[in-house]
Design goal:
Blueprint (H helix, E strand, L loop, with lengths): L1 H12 L11 H10 L2 H20 L2 H38 L7
Helix pairs in contact: 2-3, 2-4, 3-4
């Protein structure tokens, strides 16, 4: 009995004290579908790596994959927002010079 308790205590002591990073897979998929495909696909891949690395015990790798996925999600959203601003500006300029007919 005592040997099993020692093994259990060792297993519990090697677990990380930090929390697992939040799952960003849903946001990655939403960003890929609605915003920016070239940045969304790597975000999905990094989001999937988080669980795999965490289960393997590579906690620093899982945290780094989470940070990269989050960074790509933010960049994708910013790219989408800048695209919408450019589109609005281009349509406004085209309407101002009567290049298009918007009534």
């Amino acid at each position: 009995m005592e040997e099993n308790e020692i093994i259990d205590n060792f297993k519990n002591s090697t677990r990380p004290t930090m929390a697992k990073p939040k799952d960003t897979l849903v946001w990655s998929i939403i960003i890929t579908v609605l915003c920016c495909l070239p940045l969304g696909i790597p975000a999905i891949l990094f989001s999937c790596k988080v669980d795999k690395l965490w289960k393997k015990g590579d906690y620093n790798g899982a945290i780094e994959a989470h940070k990269r996925a989050k960074r790509l999600i933010i960049l994708s959203f910013l790219a989408w927002f800048l695209y919408l601003c450019f589109l609005f500006f281009a349509i406004s300029i085209a309407d101002m010079y009567d290049w298009i007919d918007i009534d």
